[in-house]
């Protein structure tokens, strides 16, 4: 009995030691079942998890950075969890790791990074930011990079924090208080099952990181989760391509009304072997198995250094060889080699895919190997 207790205690210690600081946000509201269930699952895995989201849903606000101009809420939050007249920033009275802020989804990330986490929890920077799981699989006729669930993920990467975005279209937005431990078919609540799906992928990345960054710098992951059901509890995670040429919608001006109307682009077919299952993502042509989670890699560009040593470095032409610069010395820790006019500089490739922009080949190969190994 003592040995069993010792094993449990040691396991709990290891979980705490390996636990990460993880921030979750969503555009479905801080009381939505989707993020509350993921919060519970990640906490049960030993992570120090936080939620920062709006008191009301902000679905489809896209990549906006909106901060409230009101110190107090002017309307009740969703499901009456917070009331008009309460502060625009606050936390759940029963859990100081669950916060709301009356701003856009991108603003949630910024407020969490710059104020909530360092000020109240002594967390200078989280190890991972998760956006979602959100309702509304990316089915809008716009590139998936413009939808609300992706804004926080891109903001996280731009602040140097690894990010994963999850979405699904198959379950309604409900408050966490409606979660059922078991459904009529003796299956866990769909949002509980969805949270477990998301957490399984998160844990795979954490395990393979072996104490290092969860993802390579500047690299994020977007995941389309399938509907959870009796027949789909542990989906396969399939790496697919992000489409680089899906058009953003167009607008037309109605002179009579004095307003713009939006035009929805037709689905884009960029390769005979792929069709657009939902705009912005290419999936294999033909019927796709239902219990499959589609994983897309994306990145922001960290190649453009802004530190003083690089700003002071002489420019390097892309095509024509530079003039001879004798005895160029090191600037800071960066050594700039002497140019050799007899060595031509290869021109850049004619096209650079959106997925490759800002990503080094090692980063691409590393992340692809992680997903394919799942």
UniProtKB/TrEMBL annotation:
Transmembrane feature ranges: none
InterPro entries found in the cross-reference section: SurE, SurE-like_Pase/nucleotidase, SurE-like_sf
Keyword RNA-binding: no
Domain Survival protein SurE-like phosphatase/nucleotidase: 22-232
Any single Pfam family the record assigns to this protein: SurE
Keyword set, alphabetical order: Hydrolase, Metal-binding, Signal
MF (Gene Ontology): metal ion binding; nucleotidase activity
Gene3D superfamilies, A to Z: Survival protein SurE-like phosphatase/nucleotidase
Signal peptide: 1-19
Family the entry assigns: Belongs to the SurE nucleotidase family.
Protein name according to UniProt: Survival protein SurE-like phosphatase/nucleotidase domain-containing protein
């Amino acid at each position: 009995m003592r040995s069993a207790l010792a094993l449990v205690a040691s396991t709990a210690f290891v979980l705490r030691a390996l636990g990460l600081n993880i921030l979750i946000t969503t555009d479905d509201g801080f009381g939505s079942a989707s993020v509350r269930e993921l919060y519970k699952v990640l906490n049960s895995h030993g992570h120090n998890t936080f939620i920062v989201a709006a008191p009301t849903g902000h679905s489809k606000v896209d990549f906006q950075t909106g901060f409230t101009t009101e110190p107090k809420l002017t309307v009740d939050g969703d499901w009456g969890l917070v009331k008009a007249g309460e502060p625009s920033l606050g936390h759940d009275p029963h859990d100081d790791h669950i916060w709301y802020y009356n701003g856009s989804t991108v603003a949630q990330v910024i407020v969490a990074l710059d104020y909530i986490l360092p000020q109240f929890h002594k967390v200078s920077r989280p190890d991972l930011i998760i956006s979602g799981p959100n309702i509304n699989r990316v089915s809008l006729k716009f590139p998936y990079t413009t939808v609300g669930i992706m804004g926080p993920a891109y903001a996280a990467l731009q602040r140097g924090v690894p990010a994963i975005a999850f979405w699904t279209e198959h379950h309604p937005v409900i408050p966490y208080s409606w979660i059922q431990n078991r459904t009529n078919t003796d299956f866990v609540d769909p949002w509980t099952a969805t949270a477990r799906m998301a957490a399984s992928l998160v844990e795979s990345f954490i395990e393979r990181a072996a104490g290092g960054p969860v993802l390579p710098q500047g690299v994020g992951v977007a995941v389309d989760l399938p509907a959870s059901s009796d027949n789909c509890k542990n989906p396969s995670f399939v790496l697919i391509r992000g489409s680089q040429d899906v058009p953003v919608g167009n607008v037309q001006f109605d002179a009579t009304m004095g307003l713009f109307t939006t035009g929805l682009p037709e689905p884009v077919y960029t390769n005979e072997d792929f069709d657009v299952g939902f705009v912005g993502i290419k999936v294999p042509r033909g019927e796709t198995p239902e219990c499959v989670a589609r994983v897309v890699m994306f990145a922001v560009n960290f190649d453009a250094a802004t530190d003083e040593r690089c700003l002071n470095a002489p420019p390097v032409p892309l095509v024509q060889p530079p003039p001879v610069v004798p005895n160029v010395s090191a600037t800071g820790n960066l050594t700039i080699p002497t140019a050799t006019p007899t060595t031509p500089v290869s021109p850049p490739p004619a096209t650079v895919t959106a997925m490759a922009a800002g990503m080094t080949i090692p980063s691409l190969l590393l992340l692809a190997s992680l997903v394919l190994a799942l």
